[in-house]
Amino acid sequence: xxxxxxxxxxxxxDRAAEFREQVNRRLAGEITEDQFKPIRLLNGLYLQLHAYxxxxxxxxxxxxxxxxxxxxxxxxxxxxxxxxxxxxxxLQLHWIKLADAPDILAHLAEVEMHSMQTSGNTxxxxxADPYAGATADELDDxxxxxxxxxxxSTLHPEFSFLPRKFKIAxxxxxxxxxxxxxxxxxxxxxxxxxxxLGFEVMVxxxxxxxxxxxxxxxxxxxxxxxxxxxxxxxxxxxxxxxRDNIWKARIKVLVASLGAEEFARQVEAEWAKSEHExxxxxxxxxxxxxxxxxxxxxxxxxxxxALEAAKAADxxxxxxxxxxxxxxxxxxxxxxxxxxxxxxxTPGDIxxxxxxxVADLAERYSQDELRVNYQQNLLLPHVKLDDVPAVHxxxxxxxxxxxNMNLISDIIACPGLDYCALANARAIPVAQHIAERFADPERxxxxxxxxxxxxxxxxxxxxxxxxxxxILGVDKKGEEFYQVTLGGSGxxxxxxxxxxxxxxxxxxxxxxxxxxxxxxxxxxxEGERFLDTxxxxxxxxxxxxxxxxxx
Amino acid sequence: xxxLSGNLLHDGETVxxxxxxxxxxxxxxxxxxxxxxxxxAEARAKSALTVVVDPxxxxxxxxxxxxxxxxxxxxxxALGPSNHxxxxxxxxxxxxxAALQHAHGAARSTGRVALxxxx
Lengths: 551, 119
Description:
The complex is a heterodimer.
Chain A: H1 6-27, H2 33-41, E1 45-47, E2 52-56, E3 62-64, H3 65-78, E4 82-85, E5 91-96, H4 101-110, E6 127-128, H5 142-153, E7 168-171, E8 185-191, E9 197-203, E10 215-222, H6 226-240, H7 251-258, H8 260-272, H9 276-279, H10 283-290, H11 305-313, H12 315-324, E11 325-327, E12 333-338, E13 349-351, H13 352-365, E14 369-372, E15 378-384, H14 388-397, E16 412-413, H15 428-437, H16 441-447, E17 452-455, E18 469-476, E19 479-486, E20 498-499, E21 504-505, H17 506-523, H18 530-537, H19 540-547
Parallel strand pairs in A: 6-7, 7-8, 16-17, 17-18
Antiparallel strand pairs in A: 1-2, 2-5, 3-14, 4-5, 4-13, 8-9, 9-10, 11-12, 12-15, 14-15, 18-19, 19-20, 19-21
Chain B: E1 2-8, E2 14-18, E3 21-23, H1 35-47, E4 52-63, E5 66-69, H2 72-79, H3 95-101
Antiparallel strand pairs in B: 1-2, 1-4, 2-3, 4-5
């Protein structure tokens, strides 16, 4: 886990102190809202429907127990005792007072956290594979590179006024758990012919009003040139990205209008004329960062008798093992998912008390580390198999052990119109209704992998375009309606969903999901997931099931 | 019919205009049937730079004999988030809250004039 050095510490503390001055000047009327708004946004502070919302950055989704305890304390002290994890692996607090925000930033700085890069037209908080450092299918720990990107991009003077926000995701594993194809830049580590490590560089992905999957502009970029190449990409975007139309300002529109080939040519030309050494990470700095991502594992047997005994004795634990526990690269260890998707609860929400429980478990059982993933769940990356029964029991007691990872009730939902000033419709109650309808774990298991993603507006924070079932809230004459798409994916088989049919009223969404699940169960062949069946049959049988009454 | 709403600068709370003051509950909001008077109140509210951020007029309709914001968005602002009934103004309870919760007859998209939606 990366620890701030003296430069990092001073920088973040200074930033918090600067914001205190700015807030004081705003409250005293020395600066106007128009002057203040960009300042507060660059510190992650939004004004929403009921209060201010503070979005706290969690670089590459990695937290320690100390950080999570601080977040729990802040949520209890300055908010309503809960927080909301987002699809960008950040934490949002929805009931913040402006006058408290400087104190909160100072408290965050004490534990090496901040809220920079969570808003504004800058390079945003970088995300990475949540299994980093724990999975056997990775070539390197992607957090080493994500941390380098974090340091390079934070308040980068050249890139502080981009045409629009800019998001980067990094993975070093074969399986894409970081949704790299829907990022402005997605970086996927590959091994070159000579054994050297490099990145496949994908550019121009994104969701929102105009969704695109990223195009590969370089098959193999040697890792040592990562920062100079990123600089070249962002330079081309900064120069040619549209500033005249907010809906066409993201890099995806530039890449689509130029064509990926021409965009790549311009990036290569820009890169060729830059002094790579000036931007690239010096070996000594890379080594300094790398040294902080070196978890140590005991030599342990690959099989745990304690775990096997608990599995045989407790069907609920056996189910938890099937869905929430994953192989670890070190024998005798596992990756354990913490579900923030208990049916009936708000997806991604966690109370201060639950944060304390997870922090305790991370400290005691997971080398003091935990992760946030873009599915709005947490995970403990390094748990000994012998300890999994105890971890499960503690999570279950706190309502965090729902065995539903990647199942129908593991729904992504943005805060929607319940909180967000941009939303057109609510997302949370739709997710709650669907999850409650499929709360029976046996039935959910029978249905298998089915990823539902819900957004309350076209900005697509809920990733609806890449859901196996995507649900987009729209406003029709003041009433909430929901457009349904099918067949999307944000993983290795990335695809954008296809429209099912006319938008549904709120009370018809959960029944429509039920009807579509029935179609899938009727049509599926051996081994097919919902997504596979949909891709084979096409939309017709699903459409007929949902709209038959209306015909 | 219109009302004037905004969020307090210092804590972001949703508030409503009444005779030059800001009140927390929609039931106490001043209602304008005269556009010129509403716009004059809006201009006056905007001139007080340290009280309310970005005040704006909302449309109001009659629902079962009581007044309610026209749009669903404004009703949620007047009540609080539907996933946490213990948070926001709905936690205060009362007949006015119950009336808003059961209001119907919504007719227009956001209820906010010239709202530019950007993320």
